[in-house]
Amino acid sequence: MKITTLIDGVHGETDVTELIRTDGGFENDHEKTTWVEYRRKTHPDEAPVHRSVHVTIKEGVSLFPVVGGF
């Protein structure tokens, strides 16, 4: 499987076997966020070459928030 990457300023397709995958996440009362990033196996300390993020909102967002009352 290949994914889109940005390596040395060039967009391309890289086989996932050449990359290190790291997953993470964050969750609170309002949202759940998960992410995945890929780094090159040959340069693991350099910036990621691909990142994906997914955010799920748990509570509805009010279109008319209460600012103040009389």
Number of extended strands: 5
Average residue-wise pLDDT? 89
Largest pleated sheet: 3 strands, antiparallel
Helix content: under 10%
Cα(first) to Cα(last) distance is 60 Å
Q: How many separate domains?
A: 1
* Strand arrangement across the biggest beta sheet: 3-4-5
Order of helices and strands: EEEEE
Shape: elongated
Tally of helical runs:
0
Point out poorly predicted stretches: none
Q: How big a fraction of the residues is strand?
A: over 45%
Task: Kindly name the structural category.
Answer: mainly beta
Question: What is the gyration radius calculated from CA atoms?
Answer: 18 Å
Which terms would index this structure?
single chain, 70 residues, mainly beta, 3-stranded antiparallel β-sheet, two-stranded antiparallel sheet, 5 strands
Describe the overall structure.
The protein has 70 residues and is mainly β. The chain has one domain. Helix content is 0%, strand content 56%. The chain contains no helices and five strands. The chain has a three-stranded antiparallel β-sheet with strand order 3-4-5, with no helix packed on it. A hairpin with a 2-residue loop joins strand 1 (2-7) and strand 2. The N and C termini lie far apart (60 Å).
